[in-house]
């Protein structure tokens, strides 16, 4: 009996849905009234999500996957961070995962990597460290939930050999200027690379005082800046080829900073003319960075990815495909094979969240309204208003669930009044391998005294 109880239950739901799939944009009321309601009976096996022991079934389903991607439906929900931390700790302790890679800046995150691999630190030192995440939205990584994880990683690393210490890295592309600064000490003994790097600095130097002008200047001066960043990256690549064999961590870091500069220039140059084009540059960069990290750590290395659902949930099973957009989840499945990749999505019915009402505005603790009828979150709430886990293998043959159904995605910019615009039509059993549903969530706990650097908008969909 105990074993059966631990395996969870199969719950049936009789739904009266006015429209499926749930649209990304609000459907006019007159249109709703012209359609007949459709009654659907759903059978969705699910497992309770109450404590870390309940994750046993998730660990079993993850099996020997090399890459585990952990999503989130917002960048400001405490439970998404704490449950991802709980999963990550078990993956590290029980399955030997080598590093966590996040939707964050390379340079800032590499400081965290050095911190957790260094000597023992206390929680106050961790909080001071996370203030380095001073690029808006600072709360994404400058928060107490992340601080708790970073402190745990530092403590864990004190107990293992040097070659078994767990790492922490940033996959993102935005910190072009900072990466150029970080690059210089690594190439100071190479005159050709130093010259190329200085030329990149000179190209962008006139615009460094005003980030908005800087972003526009990347577009307006793209021919020159593109040539210089390309020359620097090619020089780094050529050095890598001539060196051959294994490389030092210093070499790897230098290469990565040059890659951020190269792809960052491409991202900003493209963002003004094509949001889909800039999205693809960014997600390809993150996938490329992940591959570099796995290659550097060796053929048996394993990675945990923390990013928004819009990045980790396979884009081919959303309306992103209509715009020609790809994402990390899709690219990683293609690179390593679906059998070696496990994607976990997250979502919730209602609660509170940290977000802002416009780009660069102060963060707010906002109410997240109850998910509207017809959405995934509504369906799961109607099943039972409790936290639960769902596995795609259990529902992939359900004909009703093979259709696109609206799935909430809250960005760093959020207005609950326009809730209907925050839903991504998703074939959930194909988009993820598992889905963790939190019925009622709470806002993240940010480190509020961070001094914010004003930066140009990221320009990615929904501020994800």
Low-confidence stretches: 1-8, 14-37, 454-463
Count, helices:
18
Query: In whole angstroms, how far apart are the ends?
Result: 43 Å
Query: Radius of gyration, rounded?
Result: 22 Å
Number of domains: 2
Mean pLDDT across all amino acids: 85
Strand content: 15-25%
Q: Biggest sheet: strands, sense, closure?
A: 10 strands, mixed
The percent range for helix content is 40-55%
User: Given the C-alpha coordinates, what overall shape results?
Assistant: globular
Q: Any idea what the CATH superfamily of the largest domain is called? A: EreA-like (biosynthetic domain)
- Category by helix and strand content: alpha/beta
What is the top-level CATH class of the largest domain?
A: Alpha Beta
CATH architectural grouping of the largest domain: 3-Layer(aba) Sandwich
Query: Secondary-structure element sequence?
Result: HEHEHEHEHHHEHHHHHHEHHEEHEHEEHE
Instruction: Find the count of extended strands (DSSP E, 2+ residues).
Output: 12
Fold-level CATH name of the largest domain: EreA/ChaN-like  fold
């Amino acid at each position: 009996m105990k074993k059966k109880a631990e395996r969870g239950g199969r719950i049936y739901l009789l739904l009266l849905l006015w429209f499926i799939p749930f649209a990304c944009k609000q459907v006019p009321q007159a249109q709703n009234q012209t359609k007949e309601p459709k009654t659907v009976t759903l059978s969705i096996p699910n497992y309770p999500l109450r404590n870390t022991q309940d994750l046993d079934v998730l660990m079993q389903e993850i099996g020997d996957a090399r890459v585990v991607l952990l999503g989130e439906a917002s960048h400001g929900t405490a439970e998404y961070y704490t449950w991802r931390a709980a999963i990550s700790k078990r993956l590290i302790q029980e399955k030997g995962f080598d590093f966590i890679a996040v939707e964050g800046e390379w340079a800032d995150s590499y400081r965290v990597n050095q911190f957790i691999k260094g000597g023992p630190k206390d929680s106050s030192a961790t909080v001071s460290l996370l203030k380095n995440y001073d690029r808006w939205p600072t709360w994404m990584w400058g928060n107490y939930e992340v601080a708790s994880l970073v402190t745990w990683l530092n403590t864990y690393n004190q107990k293992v050999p040097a070659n078994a210490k767990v790492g922490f890295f940033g996959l993102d592309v935005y910190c072009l200027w900072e990466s150029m600064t970080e690059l210089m000490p690594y190439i100071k003994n190479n005159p050709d690379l130093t010259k190329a790097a200085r030329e990149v600095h000179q190209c962008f130097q006139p615009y460094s005082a005003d980030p908005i002008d800087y972003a526009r200047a990347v577009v307006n001066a793209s021919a020159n800046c593109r040539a210089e960043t390309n020359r620097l990256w090619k020089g780094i690549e050529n050095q890598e080829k001539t060196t051959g064999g294994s490389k030092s961590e210093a070499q790897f870091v230098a290469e990565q900073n040059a890659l951020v500069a190269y792809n960052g220039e491409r991202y900003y140059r493209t963002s003004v003319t094509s949001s889909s084009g800039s999205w693809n540059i960014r997600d390809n960069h993150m996938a490329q960075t992940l591959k570099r990290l796995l290659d550097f750590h060796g053929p048996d290395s394993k990675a945990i990815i923390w990013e928004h659902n819009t990045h980790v949930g396979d884009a081919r099973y959303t309306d992103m495909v209509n715009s020609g957009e790809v994402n990390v989840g899709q690219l990683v499945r293609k690179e390593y094979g679906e059998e070696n990749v496990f994607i976990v999505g997250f979502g919730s019915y209602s609660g509170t969240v940290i977000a802002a009402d416009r780009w660069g505005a102060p963060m707010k603790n906002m109410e997240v309204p109850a998910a509207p009828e017809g959405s995934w979150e509504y369906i799961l709430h109607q099943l039972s208003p409790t936290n639960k886990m769902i596995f795609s293998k259990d529902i992939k043959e359900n004909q009703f669930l093979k259709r696109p159904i609206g799935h909430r995605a809250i960005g760093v910019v959020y207005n609950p009044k326009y809730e209907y615009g925050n839903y991504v039509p998703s074939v959930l059993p194909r988009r993820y391998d598992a889905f963790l549903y939190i019925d009622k969530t709470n806002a993240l706990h940010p480190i509020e005294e961070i001094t914010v650097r004003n930066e140009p908008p990221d320009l990615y969909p929904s501020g994800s």
